[in-house]
Amino acid sequence: MPDLSSGLLSVRNLKIEATSYPPGEAPKRITIVDGVSFDLEKGKVLGLIGESGAGKSTIGLSALAYGRGGAEITGGEVNLNGTNILSLDRGGIRKVRGARVCYVAQSAAAAFNPAHKLGDQVIEASVKHGLMTKDEARKRALYLFGVLGLPNPETFGNRFPHQVSGGQLQRAMTAMALCSNPELIVFDEPTTALDVTTQIDVLAAIKHAIEATHTAALYITHDLAVVAQISDDIMVLRYGKTIEYGPVQQIIEAPTQEYTRALVNVRQAIREEAPDQSQALLKVENVSAQYSNGFKVLHDVSLHLCKGQTLAIVGESGSGKSTLARVITGLLPPSDGRITFEGKPLTPALKNRSRDELRRIQLIYQMADTAMNPRQTVRDIIGRPLTFYDGLRGAAKTARVKELLEQIEMGTGFVNRYPAELSGGQKQRVAIARALAARPELILCDEPTSALDPLVAEGILKLLARLQEEQQLSYVFITHDIAIVRAIADSVAVMHRGRLVRFGPKSQALSPPFDDYTDLLLKSVPEMKLGWLEQVLTTRRMESAGN
Amino acid sequence: MSNPTEIKPAEAPSPSGLRLKARFPLLALIAERLLLSVLLLFAVSVLIFGGVEALPGDFATTYLGQSATPQAVANIRSELGLDRPLVTRYVSWLGGALQGDFGTSWASRNSVSEQVGKRLGNSLFLAGFAAIIAVPLAVGLGMLSVHFRNRMPDKIINVLSLAAISLPEFFIGYLLILYFAVDFGIATFPATVYDGMGLAERIQTIALPTATLVLVVLAHMMRMTRAAILSVMSSAYMETAELKGLSAARAIVKHAAPNALAPIINVVALNLAYLVVGVVVVEVVFVYPGMGQYMVDAVTVRDMPVVQACGLIFAAVYILLNMVADILAIVANPRLRHPR
């Protein structure tokens, strides 16, 4: 650990609290961050990692003496070059923000003002703080756009936020942070909202820019594999407290704490690939689909899934993977091709399907939150399909609901709870129980774990695997996360721009020779090892040189 | 990762006019609004003419009273051209209206356009004066209640403005007359203005109807202003402005205002439309010689040309101001102003 005196940023015993207002109860004081200390030297990167609620964003913002949404810094010191910025008055803090410490938000799309050009917003802080003239700032912005690999740096600044892509916006936000030549930048999950193939570019651009400008950085993320590529030190946080703090190599290769070990080892293989994949339960043959306005979203897709197995569909946002699920459920009937289930053709449109057809195929959504009625108790939510399909009522229904709660490892005490009283993982479990209540044969899982923290997600995946084993369930598992595919799939379908680019048993689909897109996709997935990013970038450079 | 449930189509391919629409979405949308407004006005003219036709009662019988012999009624009807078929009368009326000629009043035998012109001026003067007071007051109160959000001043402003909007305007009018004209005697009633009145005197005369109108439109504008500013202040880009170390003034002027303005302008334009149309009742209460008074008088004697002219003009003003509100909202949207 670095010497205290030489650090650029030295945080001591930081304590951050907020008041929460639970409905129907007296306001409560809650501690978000408790006794966190760390040091950061000039030009170095410290990774803050933890699940949601660990307090990592709150710590990051404390470097700008800012508390978001009612969070108050109530104790400790944040020393920037020897000055405790928490003791400054408003004017003093304003001189730090945007000039000496800058912030890169998770969603650049929301953080840029839609009414102004990107260029004007990028240089605003530097000019307003009197650090440079407008012309100097424009020149620096131009240079930074180039460093960050933005297309047409000369004209990029004239565009409005809605005119550029998500990955470009995230890089523009990085340029905005770098523009005033700050001593420290706080990156708050800057690549979390991006597709993997975009994430790797942004990650490389950020790393390159940090190196080129010798800025220090706090890099906040929930993805250990990402932070391992960019940090010098890592701090693992949980419930607002430091779990483990040390150099990146030690954290990744020799973690001392149980929690850190769990993060490093997340998503080891959960399930072995089934050897026999010939008996199809669900068969999709030459299916195409289009929206009512004629826009074609699926082109000639053919694949199949066997009983008791998992088909993983991977692709970026916009690849058509969720649309395929909508076609299978009948929400969007195919314009061409056909779908068979247990050898019989499946009625194309949802509204024409028989109750039994409906029962056999169930859905689990990405956002369990929005997929449940907040005014219904767990009993109502899980009980609805019991009444609808099996006519269960009263005591019989409650008994079955309790049985299902046991199956999803939640205990019968949750029967009368409302969704708002459940955690993210518990909500997703209730959603699974609701699907199970219909006694389905096939469950379509649309990114059921992508909104969850890694360890919670792992629990859901294990639960799904156990249920599959016990009840011979088949899953179509839609995801953008290759690690999940490796952990649970029997067969894999890779989609890109509405087309199926690859389909087969996992062992074949994820082994070379690859098509170009699958190759790019697989190489873009961050690996939990040091130097992975450099390795990929070097390979890329060699390939492009070879071409 | 963002929710990838749906692929947004880039642009729906339609056979014709696509390229122009894609290249100039702003102009295309504005043209669309203009066209729709014209169509709407045309439809309204049909409704007004048809509605007035369908009204029970007849000018000739009302006019003649006791002496309405069938022969006399028929004479008057043919004199006024009422014996011509409906469509012919509609076409000639619309043709005249398009050239600014609304025909002759049956009751007074004066030109309707001349009468309407004078009274429209009076009505617009009253509505305009109310707007000059109401708009800054509403926006100012909205800002004030944002500043004191969820505290006493905010709550008081909210309750009072809600009370004002909940009472019908004629009731507010009578209340104001009762207190300010009758009990305290500090305002004039009736608020009748006439030619040759000086501006100061005129303003003094219309104090009470103006106050009534202001109270009626204030709450809506105030609450929308409050909501618009609050939603902008809680957005991520305002946090960005704060984390850039910008001064509060710059953050508000440069970053909040451009985004809050559009919804505020929109609600102001809608309320102006309401003002112009809403004067009808208020004018009658205060005996103010404007369009509303004129129209109500005409209805009582079945003076159809006047009723039709007033109806059409009110509709035109309402549609025009709504169209302006729409267009301003479109222009204020950077996504439409600067297409991809």
From TrEMBL, chain A:
CDD domains linked: ABC_NikE_OppD_transporters
Swiss-Prot/TrEMBL keywords: ATP-binding, Nucleotide-binding, Transport
InterPro entries assigned: AAA+_ATPase, ABC_transp_ATP-bind, ABC_transporter-like_ATP-bd, ABC_transporter-like_CS, Oligopep_ABC_C, P-loop_NTPase
Pfam families in the cross-refs: ABC_tran (PF00005), oligo_HPY (PF08352)
UniProt-listed SUPFAM superfamilies: P-loop containing nucleoside triphosphate hydrolases
Subcellular location: Cell inner membrane
GO biological process: peptide transport; transmembrane transport
Name of protein: ABC transporter ATP-binding protein
Organism name: Neorhizobium lilium
TrEMBL record, chain B:
Cellular component GO terms, alphabetical: plasma membrane
Domain (ABC transmembrane type-1): residue spans on this chain: 120-325
Transmembrane segments: 26-49, 124-144, 156-182, 202-221, 260-286, 306-332
The keyword Transmembrane helix is assigned to this record: yes
Pfam families per record: BPD_transp_1 (PF00528), BPD_transp_1_N (PF19300)
Transmembrane found in the keyword field: yes
One GO term of the biological process aspect: transmembrane transport
Alphabetized UniProt keyword annotations: Cell membrane, Membrane, Transmembrane, Transmembrane helix, Transport
Localization: Cell membrane
Main location: membrane
Topology relative to the membrane: Multi-pass membrane protein
UniProt xrefs under PANTHER family: DIPEPTIDE TRANSPORT SYSTEM PERMEASE PROTEIN DPPB-RELATED, PEPTIDE ABC TRANSPORTER PERMEASE PROTEIN
Entry similarity comment: Belongs to the binding-protein-dependent transport system permease family.
Protein name: ABC transporter permease
